[in-house]
Amino acid sequence: MLTGPFPYYSIEPIREGPLLVQWMMAFEQIPKKDWYSILGADPSANMSDLKQKYQKLILLYHPDKQSADVPAGTVEECIQKFIEIDQAWKILGNEETKKEYDLQRQEGDLRNTGPVDAQVYLEEMCWNEGDHTFSLSCRCGGKYSVSKDEAEEVTLISCDTCSLIIELLHYG
Fold it and tell me: Does the pLDDT value for residue 157 go beyond 50?
């Protein structure tokens, strides 16, 4: 177990105390937080860049790396930042959770751009064997498209030309 000058801090799972409350509150914020900005990374960053930014920040804010004469309030801020950085890496450092988070971000962005123009069943869209996507023509002349993998997880799709959005539905 890693411990430092802060007797209540450890990397072990937190089962009680004030840090448990902080962890629980932070996990409730998962869809609302911008994990990329916490790491100072761009959403298009590759895994290597994300890891490099994580390692740099985790060393900077690690409780064991803080000097003993730092005021208590600053220590608490560093611990909170350390926890956020660790959470960001747990989400973005795993391909599966990163993909899920990216889809949630994309969907949230779409919800904020405008109302849903139509509801369309996946089965009503055309399958394109060449690029392995489902597509549907938009009234502007553009198209809505979604990959087979994304079709199971995505509910909103934006047109590639205009600002219209459709909601993707599934039978049964």
Answer: yes
